[in-house]
Design goal:
406 residues, alpha/beta, 8-stranded mixed sheet, 5-stranded parallel sheet, 22 strands, 36% helix
C-alpha cells in the first residue's frame, strides 16, 4: 500500500513539474467564467426581481447594488492595467447606466410579447424566453464594453451563448424594440449595426465574408436598418451589406450584397420529383477470339417486391448471375464456355440507375462460331441476347471493367 502511494506521489510530482514547465510565460490572471456568470445573473435579478419571486424592497435592492459593485470590482482587478479609467469610475458609470438599460429591456420585452402570439404576458417573456435573456445579457455587456472594459463583456455574452444558443457579440450596436424568437443558432457579429424594431428568428447569421486577423479593426458585419424582419436560417454577410428599412428577408436566404428599403427577399424553392432509381445487376462474360472481343451479358432489375427479374428469362434459384450467362450461351447459341477468371464487381450509378456489374472471362473452342448482332470498335454482342444494346457509352464502361480498351 505504501509503495503504491509512493509511486502515485512520484507520478503526480513528475506530471506537475512538466506541466508547470510548459506553462511558463502563460499567466491566466483574468476574470473567471464563474464570476461573469454570477455577475450576469445578479444584474438580471436586480433589474427583474420577479425572477427571484420576491417583493420589491428598497433595502434589499440597495444591498443588491453593493453586491454588484463588489462583483464588478473583483472582475476588474485582474485587468486594471488595461483600463483607461479607475475601477471606481467604471463601476459608478456602469451602475448609472442600469435605469436606461432597464428601459430598453422593457421595450424589448414588450416587442416580443406584442409580436409573438405564443406569449401570454411580459412577465412570461422576462422569466422564460431565452431570446430575452440573451438580449438582456448583451445590453449589460455592451454597456461595459462601451466604457472600455476588456474581456468581461465577452465572458458575459458567452455565458448567455452557452445557456441559450444565441451568440451576440457585445460590440454589436442594436437599437430599441429588438425581437428574437426561439433564437437557437443566431449569430450577430462584433461590428453589426441593427436599427430599431428589428425582428430575428432562429438560425440567422449576421456575419463576415472573410475571417482575417488584419480585418479586425474594420467593419466586417452587415447593417440592418429599422423595421426589418429576418426569418429563420437566413445568412447575411459583409461589412458593406445593408438591409434597407422595412424589408423582409425570407428563410434560408443567402445575402452578400445590399438590398434597398421595402425589399422582399426570399429563397426560390424548386421542387423536383426525383425519378425512381432502378437497381440492376449485370453479369457480363468477355469472350476473346484473336483480336476481337465478344460480350455476353444478363441483366436483372430489382422489382418492388425485392425480387430480381430478367427480361425474357430468369436466374434459377440455385445459380449465380455468371452461371446464368454460361447456361444461356449453351441454350441460346449452343456454345460451350468455361469461366476462367472473375473480376471485382464494378458499380455504375447516376440519378436514374444503380448498376452492379459482375464481370468475368470465358473461353470457347476456336471451332465454336460466335454470332453477333452489333459491332462497335471491336466489341461484339452475342446476337441471341436481344436486349443488349452496346452504345458507345456502354462500351466505355466495359473497357473500364475489363481494362482492354480497343
Amino acid at each position: 500500500m505504501e509503495d503504491n502511494f509512493k509511486l502515485q506521489s512520484e507520478i503526480i510530482t513528475d506530471v506537475l513539474s512538466k506541466l508547470h514547465k510548459e506553462q511558463e510565460g502563460l499567466v491566466i490572471d483574468k476574470p473567471s467564467k464563474a464570476q461573469a456568470k454570477l455577475f450576469t445573473d445578479e444584474c438580471f435579478n436586480l433589474l427583474f426581481p420577479t425572477s427571484l419571486q420576491k417583493n420589491r424592497c428598497y433595502t434589499q435592492d440597495e444591498a443588491h447594488i453593493y453586491n454588484l459593485n463588489n462583483l464588478l470590482m473583483m472582475m476588474l482587478l485582474p485587468v486594471k492595467k488595461d483600463l483607461n479609467k479607475t475601477i471606481d469610475e467604471i463601476s459608478i458609470e456602469f451602475l448609472s447606466k442600469l435605469p436606461e438599460i432597464y428601459r430598453m429591456l422593457m421595450k424589448d420585452a414588450k416587442a416580443i410579447c406584442d409580436f409573438d402570439p405564443a406569449s401570454a404576458s411580459i412577465e412570461e417573456v422576462i422569466i422564460t424566453y431565452p431570446g430575452f435573456f440573451a438580449i438582456c445579457t448583451y445590453r449589460l455587456a455592451h454597456a461595459l464594453k462601451a466604457i472600455g472594459v476588456p474581456m468581461v463583456p465577452r465572458l458575459m455574452t458567452e455565458y448567455a451563448h452557452s445557456m441559450t444558443g444565441i451568440d451576440i457579440n457585445p460590440g454589436a450596436e442594436i437599437g430599441e424594440n429588438f425581437f428574437i424568437d426561439h433564437g437557437t443558432g443566431i449569430v450577430i457579429g462584433e461590428t453589426c449595426v441593427i436599427g430599431n424594431n428589428v425582428k430575428i428568428y432562429q438560425g440567422v447569421t449576421l456575419g463576415a465574408i472573410q475571417v482575417k486577423k488584419e480585418l479586425a479593426s474594420t467593419k466586417r458585419h452587415p447593417t440592418v436598418e429599422e423595421n426589418v424582419i429576418i426569418y429563420s436560417n437566413a445568412t447575411i454577410l459583409g461589412g458593406s451589406t445593408i438591409i434597407g428599412r422595412d424589408s423582409i428577408i425570407g428563410g434560408s436566404v443567402w445575402l452578400t450584397s445590399s438590398v434597398p428599403a421595402n425589399s422582399l427577399v426570399y429563397h426560390d424553392n424548386k421542387i423536383k420529383i426525383k425519378s425512381q432509381v432502378k437497381y440492376i445487376k449485370v453479369a457480363c462474360g468477355l469472350i476473346k477470339r484473336g483480336t476481337k472481343y465478344y460480350l455476353a451479358q444478363r441483366a436483372a432489375e430489382k422489382t418492388e417486391g425485392g425480387l430480381w427479374e430478367f427480361p425474357g428469362g430468369k436466374i434459377e434459384a440455385d445459380e449465380t448471375p455468371e452461371n446464368a450467362v454460361v447456361r444461356e450461351l449453351k441454350e441460346e447459341l449452343n456454345i460451350d464456355v468455361e469461366i476462367t477468371h472473375k473480376y471485382e464487381p464494378y458499380i455504375f450509378s447516376n440519378e436514374n440507375y444503380n448498376i452492379k456489374f459482375y464481370p468475368f472471362e470465358v473461353t470457347i473452342s476456336d471451332n465454336e462460331p460466335v454470332l453477333t448482332e452489333h459491332q462497335d470498335g471491336g466489341w461484339y454482342a452475342c446476337c441471341e441476347i436481344p436486349y443488349l444494346k452496346l452504345a458507345p457509352g456502354d462500351r466505355k464502361i466495359y473497357e473500364n471493367i475489363f481494362s482492354c480498351s480497343k
